[in-house]
Automatic annotation (TrEMBL):
Gene: cobB_2
Co-factor requirement: Zn(2+)
Active-site residues (renumbered): 103
Pfam families in alphabetical order: SIR2
Protein name as catalogued: NAD-dependent protein deacylase
Record localization: Cytoplasm
Textual note on the cofactor: Binds 1 zinc ion per subunit.
EC number(s) stated in the UniProt entry for this protein: 2.3.1.286
Length: 225
């Protein structure tokens, strides 16, 4: 079966990584404008690097949970396209072979001047010279608000060609990901949502499975055979 899965911060919550819109979430303690926009980076690159250095350290100290492991297992039995909004590498560390990071990844660094990409060191600073052009214009390879998500053509193809679409641990607040279920549904694809609570786009799904991902995802994967 061809399955397309979208994951959000909720799949990593039980690995101890903060989500964005919970009461103690990242956006409660940081202004999006300051740390997740090109304008914020231009205004204070030091603050932005500190924010992502903290998140990179948290991700490095976290471990994949049963939900990540179940999706890695799913890829061994079905034609799975795994898309994540998350920038941690817990899917990769769980063994998922091909993870599409539509919002980039904490493991990547990008030169704002020449576009060169390389593996991010654990700690980045505005003074780091680009390995290719030597200019001090390095940034985390993260897609900020107002920037184009990565790999969208491949993602739309995977949504249209799927037999089944599942969204796991995402609040359905941020487009284009929040529109994936509607797009899949228009193409006649069965849509299921796995979440702890109701998402903002819950009505776009044929079926909803409520509970913590570390319990619901392994059960759901087992049900697919
Ligand atoms: N199991 C399953 N779902 C959970 C769990 C859990 N243990 N804990 C939280 N959730 C759900 C919440 O109910 C919520 O619907 O995960 C979702 C987290 O929502 P957000 O914090 O908004 O995270 P996400 O949907 O991934 O945000 C999307 O917004 O700020 C941008 O770029 C950022 O990629 C992010 C995007």
């Amino acid at each position: 079966m061809r399955i397309t899965v979208l994951t959000g911060a909720g799949i990593s919550a039980e690995s101890g990584l903060a989500t964005f819109r919970a009461s103690d979430g990242l956006w409660e303690n940081h202004r999006v404008e300051d740390v997740a926009t090109p304008e914020g980076f231009a205004a204070d690159p030091e603050l932005v690097h500190r924010f992502y250095n903290m998140r990179r350290a948290a991700a490095a100290g976290a471990r994949p949970n049963a939900a990540h492991l179940a999706l890695a297992d799913l890829a061994r039995r079905h034609d799975l396209t795994l898309v994540t909004q998350n920038v941690d590498d817990l899917h990769e560390r769980a063994g998922s072979p091909d993870v599409i990071h539509m919002h980039g990844s904490l493991t990547g660094a990008l030169c704002a001047a020449c576009g060169h990409r390389w593996p991010a060191p654990p700690v980045m600073s505005p003074d780091d010279p680009c390995p290719a052009c030597a200019r001090p214009s390095t940034r985390p390879d993260i897609v900020w608000f107002g920037e184009m998500p990565y790999h969208m053509e491949r993602i739309w193809d995977a949504l249209e060609s799927a037999d089944l679409f599942a969204a796991i641990g995402t609040s359905g607040n941020v487009y284009p990901a929040a529109g994936f279920a509607q797009a899949a549904r228009r193409g006649g694809v069965e849509c299921v949502e796995l979440n702890l609570d109701d998402s903002a786009n819950a009505r776009d799904f044929h079926r909803r499975i409520t509970g913590p991902a570390s319990r619901t995802v392994p059960d759901w994967v087992a049900s697919l055979g």
